[in-house]
Amino acid sequence: MNNQLRKLQLVQLIILLEVNRICEKHSIRYILTGGTLLGAVRHQGFIPWDDDIDIAMPREEYEKFLSACSTELTHPFYLLNSQTERNYVYPFLKICLDDTIALEGYLARIPMHKGVWIDIFPYDNFPDGKIQASVYLFLRKYFLSAMSVLRNYFPTTSPFRKLYRYCATLPVRYLSDNRLVLIRERVYSHYNTQQTKKKIAAAFSAKTDIMDADIFDAVMSLPFEGFFFPVPVKYHNVLTNVYGDYLTLPPEDKRQNHGLLKIELGEYESMEEIERVLATYNPSIELP
Question: The domain containing residue 275 runs over which residues?
Fold first, then answer.
């Protein structure tokens, strides 16, 4: 494995451990998800080529976490979402590490914090009815696309596309930043007062973002890089839905990650410093 990638993974592990500390202190429920869940099950740690960490929370736990961060999250950690960073358009938050850089190519020209991060996804109730589900998915996609256009994430030189984008974003173009985010959050959480069979991650509205509504109810712990973190008891169902035969390694040409353009770890370029910080969370830790 690339030594820089390994150090990046361990720095992300430090962020996860800080999030876990806050969650345990405030009794906030969360689970590993996505490639991080797969890594815990298949590798007892990171997928060797992976370069991020994903965790998930029910919306009500996500709001508790946001509140706890106002007092618990201190330097060098910081919270990145649409309220703390105008140019951040995604409907989930990142916990980042100051004085570091993990640069995704498509964000290179966007002025915003770009520290090493982990993703935290809130899960909202997904409507049972087909028509309601179609409308709900359309609105979720619309807000993500509109905010990406307004923040110039994917610029175009085509006059036709510029006109189309201008017209498509007219319904939200002249809203204040706070109002736009508030309306988006109301759309995402619209069904949370109802009982539904499914939940969906506030992410990109892919089929794989949808899980059974009880996914957070039964949780167990699995080892991940020498520490233990919560995962759903039904992890087999989740991973099969997302990856199919998840225990079989994909061919090398399918082993994808974010393809980061730049990784700068600051003081964490030193493996000794990484190990020192990890030991503050567990003095007897031995890295796999």
Answer: 3-281
Residue-wise pLDDT for 71-120, tens only, equals: 999 999 999 999 999 999 999 999 999 999 999 888 888 999 999 999 99
Q: Which one-letter DSSP state was computed for residue 283? A: T
Tokens of 166: 């201008």
DSSP string, 166-221: HHHTHHHHTS-HHHHHHHHHHHHTTTTTS--SEEEESSS--GGGEEETTTTTSEEE
Domain membership flag for residue 276: yes
- 287 occurs within a structural domain: no
Domain count, the chain: 1
Cβ pair 52, 118 in contact under 8 A:
yes
Q: What is the pLDDT of residues 178-230, one digit of tens each?
A: 999 999 999 999 999 999 999 999 887 677 789 999 999 999 999 999 999 99
Beta strands in the chain (DSSP E): 31-32, 54-58, 77-80, 93-97, 101-103, 117-126, 198-201, 210-212, 219-224, 227-232, 262-264
pTM > 0.70: yes
